[in-house]
Every structure is written in C-alpha cells, then in structure tokens.
Amino acid sequence: MADKRYEILEAKEAVLADNDAVAAGTRVLLKEKGVFLVNLMSSPGSGKTTTLLRTIDALNDRYRIGVIEADVDSDVDATAVADAGAAVVQVHTGGSCHMDASMTLEGLKHLDLDDLDLVFLENVGNLVCPAEFDVGANRKVMILSVPEGDDKPLKYPLMFTVSDAMLINKIDVAPVFDFDYDSCEQRAKVLNPNLFTTRMSSLTGEGFDAWLQWLEKEICRWREEL
Amino acid sequence: MADKRYEILEAKEAVLADNDAVAAGTRVLLKEKGVFLVNLMSSPGSGKTTTLLRTIDALNDRYRIGVIEADVDSDVDATAVADAGAAVVQVHTGGSCHMDASMTLEGLKHLDLDDLDLVFLENVGNLVCPAEFDVGANRKVMILSVPEGDDKPLKYPLMFTVSDAMLINKIDVAPVFDFDYDSCEQRAKVLNPNLFTTRMSSLTGEGFDAWLQWLEKEICRWREEL
C-alpha cells in the first residue's frame, strides 16, 4: 500500500481496540488484587438490582462485595445496594448507553480493591451496546426477564453470544405471560453453545441457588488459574 | 480566538447537528406527501410490535399505513406487521442501538409515500440513545411496560423528556407487579409537563382507545397546520 496517500480510519474498530487494551489491563489488576469482576447486563427493568440485592444477601458472609452502579444520570439503585451492605460507587455515563473499559476502571479505582473479593458492575439497562464493550470483567452475566419475551435472542443476538450466563428472571409471573423457556434457551444456545442458563425469580428466590452455585464455581475456577 | 491554531471538534454535537438537518428535511418531505410519521420507542419487550399490530388493525380502514421496522440484525417483527396489512420495510441498523435521521429517510424512500397516510417507525428496543436522535418524525411515542417498573423516568429521563406520549402498557399483568401508576406518571410529568399519558394493554385491548383517540387528534392537528 505504498502508493496510498491517506489513511482510512475505521473509527469504531479503533475505539474497540483501545477499549480491549484497557480491559486487558483491568484483568491484570483484578488478578493482582484477587478480585473477581462480574459484568451484569440486561434491558431496563429486567431485575438487575433485585438480583444483585439477593446475591449480596446470600454471599455477604463469605465474600467482601463491591458494586459499580452505572447509570446515565441517576443514583436510584446505589442507595439500595449500599443498604444491603456492599461497597458502592455510582458511575454516571454522561449520556452513554453502555459502560466501556475506561469507565469501569475508573469505577474500580474508587473502590478499595484490597478490601474486596467480588465486584459486580451493574451496567446501563440496554441489550445492544453493552454487549460490544469488554469492560475487563472475568465473567459476563445477562438477565432476560419473562415479560420481555422468548424471541429476544433472535433480536439482540450479540448479547447472548458474548455472555457466559443467561439468567431467565421473573419466573414467578410466567403464568400470565406466553413465554417458551425451551425455545428461548435453544435460541440462545444456537448462538452460544457454552452459555449457562437457569430459570429463577429474584423476587421470590425460586431457582436462585443454581445461579449462586454457578457463580461460586466460576470464582473457584478463576482462583485456581491465578 | 484568532490565535487558536487548531479546531476542537465536539464530535457528538456535530453528528447530532448533521442529524437534525436531515430530520428537518424529512419533515418537509412528509409534509409534501401528507404522511404523518410516528417514532415508536421503548425497551426490548415492552410491546412495540403488539401495539403496532393492534393499531394497524384499528386504523387500517381509515388510513393507509406503512411501517419501518428497525432491528440490529433480524426481521422477526416485519412478517407479522406485513401480515396485518401494512406496507413494511425492514431496516438493519448494522449494530447501531438506535435509528438516526438518515437511516429513517432511507427507510421512507423504500416505502411508496404517495400511497400512504401514516407511517410508524418501530425503533430499536432501547430507552437511551433513540431519545437523542430526531429521526424527522411528527410525533415521538414511547411505551413503558408495567414489568419494567415505575422508576424508569428517574433512570432514563431523556426518553420521557423528549416524547409526546407515554403509553403504560401491559396493565393486564399489573396484579402480579408492584407498579405505582401515579408515581410513574408524576415522575414523567416533572420531566415533561405536556406529556400525554395513558394506561393500556395491547394484548387485551383495555384502555387502547385513549391511545388511538390521542393519535388521531394529533394527526388532525398536524393536517390543519399543513
């Protein structure tokens, strides 16, 4: 390409490459500190905060837990999470519909990592862009709630492709919705055969243990690799 | 600023300014063709497609209806909408989490506007970025479904600020959710005192007439201004 007189910048690819470099650095930091980071993603209102609160309640005696709360411009969840006993930092994305690696690293810097074992990033409620950005987490977990419908893997495939676990939430209200669990899981597994899936209600606690068991198993596997 | 040796580009502002210019042009085109364009926005799974299908069914004998179906990368809704009797074009946003004015104009060019009175854009399921982009529509309508929770105006304020109407959908399942209609509407109206709000179920049809009446009134008002 010696005769090329100008450069073509694929801006999005460049942004994502920069992001990936920061994310890789974040994982080095997390390894050094022995902190396991979970990137929790879903649509608005799928139950990220309720899931977090119940998870903190269940694991608080065995892990020192921190939470990065990401919101476009509010802090309605941060107080509830702090009340549950986790160390919390609220990140405002300034209009951005997703967290990237730099914003997440800034959030981590505002937590005392020497004093934590497990950190959750509660990402912005959005099934599209958060899937594109590696934030440096050790595992990506997505929640799909029953009221959203079983066709979502068809419409937002990347989220299901990149996640390690899909928690089908709000099964307590399944009787009033037309949601086909098998079809949903099958659609997701076509995209991602290794996806862990479970059915649960963060509100009632039904099925919640399977999620906790998966999470603790993943933390153990990660620690063994350290 | 004569001594300034370089320009600072506020990239996002520039993109939005370009977008607004295209949107203004689209509204001139729509006026010329006598076509009323509605930008329909919500989270994934709030009921945009079900609302559209029932709306088409109710208005099909009085308006010639077209639909621009926007999806990241699928066409699962387009067939259903075409079956309902509307002229449909499917737009793939190529990974983008929102429609902008140029993509919408492209969609309109693929519909026969001389043969239509009313076009709905079913935007990408997302409560964040679609609110930022004027697509050239005559009215912006958002759906918030009961399962998402009554706190959403606090967490995604721009969507509620820029919309002309908020349809609170899935009231048929309200008994199994803890949703405070009054608080939700109050939170939205603090952001946007002129917001039309209504409570309905696109599934059962309960409360649906208020939405149709509002829409027809807005179409009449727009036609009077032509």
What are the key terms here?
seven-stranded parallel β-sheet; homodimer; alpha/beta; Rossmann fold; 226 residues
What does this structure look like?
Two copies of one chain form a homodimer. By secondary structure, chain A is an alpha/beta fold. Chain A has one domain (17-218): Rossmann fold, CATH 3.40.50.300. Chain A is 39% helix and 18% strand. Chain A contains eight helices and seven strands. Chain A has helices spanning 11-33, 48-59, 78-83, 101-109, 152-155, 157-162, 181-191, 208-225; strands at residues 36-42, 65-71, 87-92, 118-122, 139-145, 165-169, 196-199. A seven-stranded parallel beta sheet of chain A has the order 3-2-4-1-5-6-7, with helices on both faces. The model of chain A has no long low-confidence stretch (mean pLDDT 94).
Architecture blueprint of SSEs:
2 copies of one chain form a homodimer.
Chain A lengths: L10 H23 L2 E7 L5 H12 L5 E7 L6 H6 L3 E6 L8 H9 L8 E5 L16 E7 L6 H4 L1 H6 L2 E5 L11 H11 L4 E4 L8 H18 L1
Parallel strand pairs in A: 1-4, 1-5, 2-3, 2-4, 5-6, 6-7
